[in-house]
């Protein structure tokens, strides 16, 4: 019986490693093609499968442990007060001011209520129409 097995090829086929990379069990060849793996199994070769870590578990854990506050920066109280005071000094309604800067009235409402995310272009238009500094140091002057 020992003679009958001498003709069989028992080379190891490793899946999940680069071809030519040495493994701990010997110098097996990496086979990524499912047909090659099936052929190796039919031929009676030893087949070792190695599951690669995709990193998804680590990323999920990182997200789970992250307690960072993820909120957008909104208009400061100084800016919203300066817009309101500048608009009232010019005796404009929110709709009139919005029309002068070519924006919708709800944009002015959001800036005056402090809910708007600052947009430098809109702030520049408001500075020009109201004559009030809204960006940088010295807001409201």
UniProtKB/TrEMBL annotation:
Keyword Coiled coil on entry: no
GO molecular function: DNA binding; transcription coactivator activity
Gene3D superfamilies attached to this UniProt entry: lambda repressor-like DNA-binding domains
InterPro entries linked to this entry: Cro/C1-type_HTH, Lambda_DNA-bd_dom_sf, MBF1_N
Bias (Basic and acidic residues): 1-15
Any Gene Ontology CC annotation: nucleus
Chain segments carrying region Disordered: 1-32
Family: Belongs to the MBF1 family.
PANTHER family with a match to the protein in the record: ENDOTHELIAL DIFFERENTIATION-RELATED FACTOR 1 (PTHR10245:SF15), ENDOTHELIAL DIFFERENTIATION-RELATED FACTOR 1 MULTIPROTEIN BRIDGING FACTOR 1 (PTHR10245)
Name of the molecule in the record: HTH cro/C1-type domain-containing protein
